[in-house]
Every structure is written in structure tokens, then in C-alpha cells.
Amino acid sequence: MESNSTSEFSSEPTQPTPPVAESFTAARTDFSRLTTAVAAIRQEMGKVIVGQHDLLEMLLTAILADGHVLLEGVPGVAKTLTAKLLARTLDVPFSRLQFTPDLMPSDVLGTSVFRPNTADFEFRPGPIFASVVLIDEINRAPAKTQSALFEVMEERHITQDGTTYPMQEPFVVLATQNPVEQEGTYRLPEAQLDRFLFKLNVGYPTLEDEIAILQGHHAGFGGTPLEVVQQVLSAEDIAALRRQVRQQRVEPKLLEYIARLVGQTRAHKGLYLGASPRASLALLNGAKALAALRGRDFVTPDDVQFLAPAVLRHRILLTPEREMEGLTADEIVKQIVQQIEVPR
Amino acid sequence: MASFWIRWGRVLLMLLLVSGAPASAAPTPSPAQTAQAASLPPVRLRRPDPEQLRDFRAQRDFQYVEVRSEMSPWDLFWSRVWERVGEWLSSRSYHGFWRYVFYALFLGALVFVILKLLQVDITGAFGRNPRRAALAYDTEAEDIHALDFPTLLAEAETAGNYRLAVRLGYLQALKQLTDAGHLEWQPDKTNLTYERELPAGPLRTAFAEVSRQFEYVWYGELTLTPEHYAHTRASRQALLAQLSD
Predict the structure, then answer these.
(1) Which spans does this entry mark as compositional bias, Polar residues (chain A) (predicted)?
(2) Closest partner CB to A344 (pick from B130, B132, B171)
């Protein structure tokens, strides 16, 4: 039994929305299918992993919001394992790519091979053709290979020899990277970072979780095979849940609130590069999915504030002066959140 | 053949010079000098009189005591600094190149102070400029302490605008909780943040209920019937009643 819980979200324990008077919730959206599925996924993943509840919530939010996730953390905090486990709970094609410095775009996307018997070229799809694609150590591949992901991550298709090949639904990229190792790594281009819905910082486990990991390992559960994890959601289920999420209510003032938050990143003196309108869309879509996961059919400012660091931290660039002062992107995002009035 | 003899002649000359050098460097004393040295009396070593030394030691002038400065280390530091600066200003190097450097620095500092006083930002004139854009909307916060809640609530209820009435009622609850010292009103705080500020107990439970109702009505755009509104008003009044207890 392995893994941990994220430090990023531990200060904000997530709670399901308390029930409101029956008359208020009548004739509202039914999220029972989603609630049941999430509980089942948690149970299946809990067979192998300890903690990671909040990380799992964020990953599910990303899947419901049709977004990609960049997981960043030091080695050994179960980034890859969590992603693999989540993929196993989904009854969809899964592939894993280990990014290396000599990886070529064709190793990811696929290539056309010549068929002598037909005297024609045939496209052989690469490992990107799956529903859940786990890219391990994404920052170990050079910019040339990273660029190959631009089109597929944003437009959900690739173009090879003038022919466009669409991805199947759902299509989610879960990428991992190590923040401390500099040797043999490349910083991801801003254009690619912007294509990730969330960047999640995976921290060390809490003391209780680490003790639980040790206890489980000592008792002989350390070698629990991933095969014990059952599939919970099919591609059709995910598509139906996504349709439900898209119909979430968002009060107009909240749209303005999101625009103000993201707009402030372009006006903040401590930032050299602010977030793009794609960040606004990411914040909106993420908030809608998170609200659904928490059993609501409408978005609240809490959802927006909760997701703001994960959506914005990889999309902003600090000025050299602020970096030298030791400020982080998360601290700037926190300052921005404190500057904007919550619509009420 | 001639060059052979020339070469050997040079070598021979060098040998003669080297072998003759010490003889010329150390002149031999003459017999008269030797006789004069023998006639001098032997050297006698004289010692100071110990009694005289004791007398000297007893005198105040010869009692050397380290004089301690009455200045603090900080004053001493600045004294040294200004002393050095004075030395530097009176030196020859200052009157050359460094005088103009000093003038330039002084002028720069003066311009900086003036720009700061005028609140002029010229950072964009140098190097990379942070991408800034003026916000095209008003960011002023609504002040709950400036609103006349009873009047506004009565107007909204009379008009049948229950959505607005729920909002005003919630803001009123926030104001009264702030006035009572249970919450600290900040425009950037969410309802959940306020909820967490309250200690666990009946007050928090009642506030959580009112918050959820407000969220369903305001953010969830729930259309209220008079019966629904009566329910929310009862919840709010129950919360406020706890404050007046």
C-alpha cells in the first residue's frame, strides 16, 4: 500500500454541501450517479493508496471539466501511481509514455509506414491515441517533442501528412514532473502550460498517512497489485456526466468575478505575464465541475477561490524582482484573490 | 682559427674577473688601523639603576593606561566613516574623476526622491516592462455598514423581489455578526470563510443554514415562492435572535 495526501489542499478540508431544506432542492439536478461513482472510485483507489482524497477530487474535477492535469512533486509521493490508479477506475483505453530527451514527435503521435503490398503509406497511431494518457516526467523531452502535444491537447486531434485524426472521447492527459531536478530537464513552453487545466502540487504525506503507509506495508499489503482496482466509469458515463456539468448554473456576477480575478493577473505589478482568457474558461469549467462533485448545480465563489491557485499558478510569470524576493506564484494568486470583492 | 682564439680569450677573461672579485670587495685593514683598535678600552655594558626605574614607575606620567573612548561603538563607527569620507574628499583622487561620480550619484538620488514624492512610475522606461492593463470596471467594495437594511428589506418584500430580500437579509446577518464581534467583515471573504470563523455551536449551525439558503437563491438562481421566502426569513430571524440573547 502506497502514497500520501497533498499538502496543497490540506489546509482547506473539503466538505460536502450540507443539506438544505427539502423545498429548496426539489426539482434540481440529480447528481446521485456522480456521487455514487465518486464514492466507488475512492473505495477502489483506497485498496492501494493511502490518503490523496483532495488530489483525487481535483483529478475528477479535471476529468469532468474535460481538462488536462500537470502533477508536480518530488520523487516518491505517488504522482504516477495516483494517475495510474485513477485511469484503472475508468473503463477507457489507457496508455503511458515515459518522456526522455531523445523522444521524437513521431514516437508520441504516430507515423506513416510504407506498405509494399499496397504501395501506399499507412498511418500507425502512436501512444497518444488513448482516452487517458499518462505522460511521466514530461519535462524530460525537448521543446520539439513538447510542441507535438500542442494540437492534440487543445483541439483533440492530430494532423499527419495532411490528414486529421480525431481523438476519442474522453481524452485526458495526466502529466507528471519533478520540480527539483534540473539536470536533463526542459522548462515546458508557456503555450503548453496554458493547455493544462490544473497544475497540482503533490506534497509529502501527513504524519498519520505516512504511518498508515508503513503499517500497511509492514502488514504485507505493500505489494497490492493494481489489478484489484475495479473499473467504475465508462466512456459513456463520463460523457453523460460532462453534459450534466456543462448545464451548471453560473450567476452572471460570478462570471464577472472570474474575469476580474484573471484580469487582475494582467494588472499585477509583480507579474511579468498574466493569465490568458483560456485561464478564465478553465476557472469557469473547473468551478462547474467542482460544484457538481460537491453536490450542487450552481457555482459559488468558494469553488472559484478554491480552484484559483491550481488554474493560475502555471499560467503566470513573476517579474525577476519578485522572484528574487522569494515570492511564489501561489502567493501572488492569494494576493489577487484578496484584492477582488466576492460577489454577494 | 681566429674565432677559436677569440672565444678562448673571452673565457679566460671571465675566469680572471670571477677569481679576482672577492679580493677587491673585502679590503684588508692597514697596520695603523689594527694598532688603533688594539689601544681602545674594552666595551662595558651599563645597566639602568633599579631604584631609579622604580622612581620612574611611581611617577604618574609614566603610568600608561589605555584611554577608553566615551563614544558608543555606533558613534565610533560613524566617526570613522566621516573621517574617511573627509580624507577622501580632500584627497587628490577625489578632485579628479571621483568628484564627478559623486555629483552624478547625488543628482540621481535627488531625482529619485522627487519622482517618489510625485508618485511617478518610470520603471517601464528600463528593460522589460510588466504587462499591465487598466481594469475596465469598478472594484470598490460594497459597504454593508452604510446600508439601511430595514428599509431596503421592507421595500424588496413589498415588491415581491424575494431574491433581493434574501440577499439583503444575508448581508444584514453578516453586519450584525460583525457588529457583535463574531466575524470580521472583509470583501474578499466567502461565505464558507465566515462560517469557519464562527466557533462550533448553535450559532454556526444557524449561520450555515442561512448561508446555504442564500447560496441556493442568489448563486443558484432559485425562484422563490412566498412560502419559500417565509422559510428563509424564519431561518434568518432565528439566527439574529441568537445574537440578541
Answers:
(1) 1-14
(2) B171
Residue A274 with chain B: CB contacts under 8 Å:
131, 133
DSSP classification of residue A100: -
Task: Assess whether pLDDT exceeds 80 at residue A1.
Answer: no
Sequence ranges of the domains in chain A = 1-247, 248-344
CATH class of A1-247: alpha beta
Give the pLDDT of residue A58.
Answer: 92
Size of interface A-B (CB pairs under 8 A): 99
Chain B residues near residue A301 by CB distance under 8 angstroms:
190-191, 219
Chosen CATH of A248-344 out of 3.30.70.3270, 3.90.930.12, 1.10.8.80, 3.10.450.50: 1.10.8.80
pLDDT (tens digit per residue) in A285-319: 999 999 999 989 999 999 999 999 999 999 999 99
Which residues of B are less than 8 Å from A273 in CB distance?
131
- The CA distances from residue A130 to A32, A85, A122, A228, in Å, are 28, 16, 19, 22
Output the pLDDT for position B126. Answer: 54
Contact residues, chain B, for A272 at CB < 8 Å: 128, 130-131
pLDDT of residue A10: 38
Which of B168, B196, B222, B225 should we substitute to test contact with A (largest number of A Cβ atoms within 10 Å)? B222
Nearest CA in chain B to A18: B212
Grid coordinates of A200: 497540482
Of A49, A17, A28, A53, which is closest to residue A38 (Cα–Cα)?
A53
